[in-house]
Amino acid sequence: MRNDAKLSIVMGAAAAWLAGAELCNAADPDGQAYDRIEKGHYLTTVADCFACHTVPNAGKPFAGGRPIETPFGIITSSNITPDNETGIGAWSDEQFDDAVRKGVRPDGSRLYPAMPFPAYTKMTRDDVLAIRAYLATVEPVHQPVKANTLPFPFNIRLAMRAWDALYFTEGEFRPDSQQSPAWNRGAYLVQGPGHCTACHTPKSFLGGDKTGDNLRGFNLQGWFAPDITGDLGQGLGQWSEADITSYLKSGHNRITAATGPMAEEVVNSTSQYDDDDLHAIAAYLKSLPGQQAAAPARAEPSAMNAGEAIYRDQCSACHGLDGQGVAMLFPSLAQSSLAHAGDPTSAIRLVLRGGRSVATDAEPTAPGMPSFGWQLNDAQVAAVLTYIRNAWKTSAAPVSADAVGKARDQFSTRSD
Amino acid sequence: MPRKLPKKDVVIIGLGWTGSIMANELTDEGLDVIAIERGPWRDAPTQFPTNYVQDELRYRIRHELFLRPEQNTFTFRNKMDQTALPIRDWGSFMPPNGVGGGGVHWNAETWRFLPTDFVLRTHLTERYGAAFLPEDMTIQDFGVTYDELEPHYDAFEYLCGTSGTAGNLRGRIQEGGNPFEGPRSRPYPTPAQKQPFSHALFAKAAGELGYKPFPQPSGNLSKAYKNPLGLQMGPCTYCGFCEWFGCGNYSKASPQTTILPHLIRKSNFTARDNSEVVQINLDRSGKLATGVTFIDSAGVEWEQPADLVILAAYTMFNVQMLLHSKIGVPYDPVANKGVIGRNFTHQTISSVNGFFDNKKFNFNPFISSGSIGMCIDEFNGDNFDHGPLGFVGGGYMGQVQTGGRPIQTTHVPPGTPKWGAQWKSAVRDNYLSTVAPGTGVHGSFYSYRDVYLDLDPTYRDRFGRPMMRMTIDFHDNELKQNAYLTDKFAEIIRAMGAHTLDKAYRKGPYDATDYQTTHLNGGAIMGTDPNTSAINRYLQSWEVSNLFVTGASAFPQNPGYNPTGTVAALAFWAATAIRGQYLKNPGPLVHA
Predict the structure, then answer these.
(1) What pTM, to 2 d.p., does this model score?
(2) A369 — contact with chain B (CB < 8 Å)?
């Protein structure tokens, strides 16, 4: 198998040369460049290529075929193993770099931004080619993937040219000389390979980043990926750097726990980050300014009273009457940014459907929360969330029964 | 012919407390381990969610978590000259089923036995003379001492985060703890649980009578705790739904909360649920196990070969497995020979309810936990002089009121009609002002020649094999012990200020329909002599050296405590022997 992989690189390079393309010089075709492959392995983990390009539990890492839900339909991830026919074995380094950093495929067509090339464009060419060097060493899998399963008109890749013109800014990350090296490293990881923006930055109706609201939270795949700026109420303002690194390393900290898509991200990616990189990310995120949100509407006393009664009865056993929870076990609702997010989708989802937090080596417990959707009606869920969002120091807009009802309908067709 | 699976290093029969402990210890040793469990997989937040697990009808009355008698039951009789009949609905004990075993539904009362409990026959003979013991009493020494087990008790308590107050720290008696306990190497990992009003009042009354009350050691935690495997536990909320129920609050120590999330991350561990092991297979010599045969839920028969077999099922099923696998000589009470089925025991439980003036006392009995309570140990083991009393044994006693659940906590004074307006009125008047210990007097049950397990001559199980037969009754010694302890206990309840007492002495004959505890013990006991024990001091089968049998089936008799602490300590002790001695040189660890 390994021999096949090596062969495919040589073949790929030869094919590129025959086609008149510039021959690579960054990847080491002999597969012995340990440092480079190691670096590439780490960056592949940081960029979490595995998550999208692997069908869970199918035993075929990076062979693609995983359906990715986008607001426009389902896109199926491609095969990035070094298989010559169905993978990227025959690609030149240049072609690989173009795909990752420009969103352009070898045939010149455009990738959909489900592949986060608007973030990866900030990576250095050297880092991208290190990833290439590592991917050349994984087991090639012969698996054709029909990537584009979007409905009309989104299935027309040509449309992506216009999209790119509107929303895609090509170019490597430029360090800010006013900031520390750690801050710059954090910014590079968050904006580039870590592609945190893909989920946490609000998008336009066409799926482009609203860069002015960078990392202030976004609703996708039935979750609200919360604000991860330094915002005091909705973001990470109350988190220490250690809270952030603990969360990314173990999936848990004194305030909250990773669940939903972030749980997968923690397992596949952030739990394996170097500690220095986690500290760098924490420093960077804490420095991002919060938004100047208008004061939220006041919650009705009737909803607060009903919510408090439900909270005492159903929630306080784990989360405490004071909303403080238990560090690393039961989230502190008093401080949770998920609970106070302007968009309460995730909070509604957790109450209706329950949830399971992530298990990691550092924190293997993986506590779960029961579902209350069978027990509380829409008005009761709205009341208890309104109470949770306003009972302690921070305040957030009330949740309406109508919003809960809509979410209930939407979640009823989703798997967990 | 069963289908044969690839060989494993270790096969474990049953994934309860001891199966989980063994699996964790042996996978740490690098061995490839499979655990085969008859019942379903159970996970705390999924199966015991806090918003419906407090359902007394479902779990207590309808026995949701327990084995269905349709799947497997036993026949029962009191005396050898009677014909045993099948138990069709569980009564005096509750056979667990499913991952976590009895560790799911227990109250989490986490005791250590007294040092003298391990050397019982030697000790009582030395103090009172051999003639003091009833002639047919077959008590014997465990073959292991308290001091040998101390590090393993400690390991289990720190695994669970047990809440308690030390009474004897490295030989120094500690104020507020149990002064009779053996020396412990360090304090409990978490402080004792808070005590509700009636429990505190019991302690006050007991103290005034000259006793030394102390909080019962509890596996329902007083505070959040992170155990040595990195698992997080939460503080108990005193909801009062512990025994018969699983805990979704991460507060009660169970395999689910203290071991399994860690264990299932190991690549050298596999679990197979809904699969019932029916036999341990032996090679031609009969001296070595080759693995096990099990049947899955589709009725398909499989063979799982392994180098080492750990039999870690509930007491009754351990004995049944040995009998069906023809390992060890079955016990014959007439000839007084053989070992499998010998020294079968239970517990001698009684209680006293106290009715108080409801204008002066409001006990809020629903604020509770399964192992909350204030106890005294003056009448346990041989902590008191039995010479003038004419019996041996004893038990702890205490106000261990484990809940105020709606169906079964409707205590009324003696003489109240059993139904109708007067009964309702009495329930209303007394609910908040009654002391009704869940465990009041928790007495020992010593072993006798005619209390044993064997195969039934008439009734067969669903596989066509003979059912196992229980022959069990109370002997005078236990009934005398219980009468003495119950009276002593009643004095304390009276001293608390009760105006009316309802004393429920334990009386014979043994009643299989009346719940006592699930502490069935013995039948495959440990010891130093292969003629009187099934397994050696390391829980290793005397006959089949690559078979270890864990659980309370190893107890030669039952002391006056709940068994789980000792069951778990023995599992750690055996695991240590396997890791330190057996694997280096497989074969008998003790030469008979």
Answers:
(1) 0.93
(2) yes
